[in-house]
Amino acid sequence: MNTILAQLLNGLDKGAAYALIALGLTLVFGTLGVVNFAHGALFMLGCFCAVAFRYLLTIETVSVDPTQLSPWGQPVQVRTPLVQDWLGDFGALMVDYSVPFSILLTVPVMLVIGIAMERGLIRHFYKRTHAEQILVTFGLAIVLGELVKSVFGPNPWPQPIPSDLRGAADIGIWLGMEPRSLTYPMWRVIYLLFSLAVIGGVFAFLRFTTFGMVVRAGMADREAVGLLGINIDRRFTVVFGLAAVVAGVAGAMYTPLLAPNYHIGMDFLVLSFVVVVVGGMGSLPGAVLAGFLLGILQSFASMTQIKTFLPGIDQVIVYLVAVVVLLVRPRGLLGRRGVMEG
Amino acid sequence: MFHLSRKDQVKLAIFALVVVTMPIWLAPLGAAYPGLMQKFAIYAIFAIGFNILFGLTGYLSFGHAAFLGVGSYTAVWSFKLLSMDILPALLFAVLVAGLFALVIGFFSLRRTGIYFSILTLAFAQMCYSLAYSVLTPITNGETGLLLARDDPRVIDAALGAGTVGGAGLPSPALLGNSVTGYFGFYICAALLILTFYISQKIFASPFGLALRGIKSNQTRMIYTGFNIRPYMLAAFVISGMFAGLAGGLLAVTDPIAGAERMRWTESGNIVLMTILGGVGTLIGPVIGAWVIKYFENIFSAINKNMLNATFDFLPDGMQNIAVTVLSKFVGEGWHLTLGLLFVLIVVFLPGGLVEGYLKLVARLRRGRGTKPEAGGK
Fold first, then answer.
1. Which residues pair with B177 in a beta bridge?
2. Would you say B247 and B259 are in contact if contact means Cβ atoms under 8 Å apart?
3. B157 inside 8 A of chain A by CB
4. Which of A91, A187, A267, B360 could pair with A83 in a Cys bridge, judged by C-beta atoms 3.0 to 4.6 Å apart?
5. Domains in chain B: how many in total?
6. Mind telling me which residue stretches traverse the membrane in this protein (chain B) (predicted)?
7. Whole-angstrom distance, CA of residue B79 vs CA of residue B145
8. Is residue B351 part of a domain?
9. For each of chain A's 342 residues, which pLDDT tens digit applies?
10. Which residues contact A38 (CB under 8 A, 6 or more apart)?
């Protein structure tokens, strides 16, 4: 029972990342009709926002403290991050909590990048075929990856978990079980909750704001909304920025779980495309559902009991599901009839 | 059956001439060494095969690297188990890759458009992950499949033929002649000319016309009573077999096979080559493959010192700036150039270099055509 619960949790946090990326991907596809192969690169850029943020925070001053002596009799060099110098304890806290704080940097940066990308490149491809959209965004993904590589180098950049949030959360107690019967890394729980909040936020934004209402109307019938005198293009540009932000914060918060390098985006992209297709092209709830579902399936497939029974299943389960879904129900789990069916 | 139209005969003759004289005309470009020319020929074969699917039918496969990888593995296994001769190796590489293409194509072709792309991508990723993990006994995982001295090599043993290569590892051979250097290149070149010929035949055949019909209006093809499935499947299998041949040749020229050849970025590369040259044209994919392989080789060899030497004439500050900026694009950063090139081509020249050339020619013609007229008035 506990093993199953633990695997479920494992799947949920991986699924959370899939769901967040797939959500942005679907948002872009549903509004702009563009198949964005560069979306994984946006996730990667988000990761590196966190890296850059921490890098900036930890620029240090070195001062010599003559009152303390090292074992060799030399004065000790004290390294203090500049932020700590300026802001005192709050600065130290910021350095410790650099990953959550990096959201503050990630959101505006990703918004700008997303809007620039849409205005600069993607909008020229609305009328082109899907194949050409795939190709140009694939090229863009290579460019973004290589740019990051030339700045940050090819090696992964591990990010620390804030010291208070290390260790395991005793989830068993929350569920009314024996203490210590079910524990789970704290940061993964936080990631899961965070992603649920972001997903909820996006849905609420689309559901309850006028802006969101216009966007949903535009998704259903772009032309009619345009004829009402609404500048739908501008709204969709913002939606692209929003999708970039979602991918970015998903990446920034994921850095403590997996040290990012320049091709982390590519690795996630293929999977999240599969997620989108399984959920149904253009269906937001479908993307979220499929994200969690595939995450859970993948985590169950990597259980030893199942792996001995079906070797290699953990490597291919996601693709296998995608193939089956595409062949049996091409519009995906929650896709609307007629959207990209063929 | 072997007949070609006069125009195609001329094209084939010119193409063959260009390929065979490669060592001569590549020498001034600094690329006339056999290892690179072999790559030119091999990737041209791969691109020609990919073009038969993508160019003629418009189905964008994102998983063709899988067939390349399968071809490589099969060829190396043939070296290990049967014989060091390349004939069985290539034959099996083509057949096994064709078999894979038959299975993958059978399922993938049930869908069109982006779903087809994702299906092929999913299958290729499955092959890749399996080759890395569970299939390690067959693929030797991350190390890659290597030859060993004590491989059985049944046919060689039965014939009592000593393997070429002396005391070290045996090397691939064609009927007893070791396939290295220029001999290896000419084998690849001969196969390239053969594949070009086959592609010409397919382009000119009713089969090729049917495929183009499917590209331009699938629904209409179906309504005219065409059963498009077998045609599509045939195109898919043929292009898979070409990829297998290319993979086999990679193993022939360098007998090692690794899973990284199946990565989906490799599939992206072959799409890029085809697009860069010109989709749906006979010669375009070949040109694309050559341009990319050439620049990959040249660009990735450039380093900072060479740049410094080149920009020596500039004032110091400007030299530094120029070198710092340009060094991001060469050497390790060659992929950045490639990505930019890719974006630019898709944005400005969707028809590739061939279309660019045709446009240029048309413009020049028009320019020449109007001038005398104006003079006459």
1. B174
2. no
3. no
4. A91
5. 1
6. 12-33, 40-66, 86-107, 114-135, 183-211, 231-250, 270-292, 336-358
7. 11
8. no
9. 677 877 888 888 888 888 988 888 888 888 888 888 888 899 999 999 999 988 888 777 777 776 777 777 777 776 677 777 777 777 777 788 888 888 989 999 999 999 999 998 888 888 887 778 888 888 888 889 888 888 888 888 888 888 877 777 777 777 777 776 777 788 888 888 999 999 999 999 988 999 888 888 888 888 888 898 888 888 889 999 999 999 999 999 988 888 888 888 877 887 878 888 888 877 888 889 999 988 888 888 887 777 777 777 777 888 888 888 888 887 778 877 655 544
10. A117, A137, A138, A140, A141, A144
Whether residue B224 lies inside any domain: the answer is yes
Note the pTM of the prediction, 2 decimals: 0.83
Q: Residue B358 falls within a domain, yes or no?
A: no
**DSSP calls for A36-87:** -TTHHHHHHHHHHHHHHHHHHHT-EEEEEEEEEE-TTSPEEEEEEEHHHHHH
Domain A2-51+96-328 sits in CATH at 1.10.3470
Q: Which of residues 282-321 of A touch B (CB under 8 A)?
A: 311-312, 315-316, 319-320
In this complex, do B346 and A135 lie within 8 Å of one another by their Cβ atoms? yes
Print the domain residue range for B166.
6-263
Residues of B in contact with A149 (CB under 8 A): 332-333
Cβ separation B339–A326 shorter than 8 A: no
Closest-CA distance, B148 to chain A, in angstroms, reads 27
CB contact under 8 A, B339 and A316: no
The HSE-up count of residue A255 (CA atoms within 13 Å, CB side) is 35
- Picking from A130, A132, A150, the nearest residue to B328 by CB comes out as A150
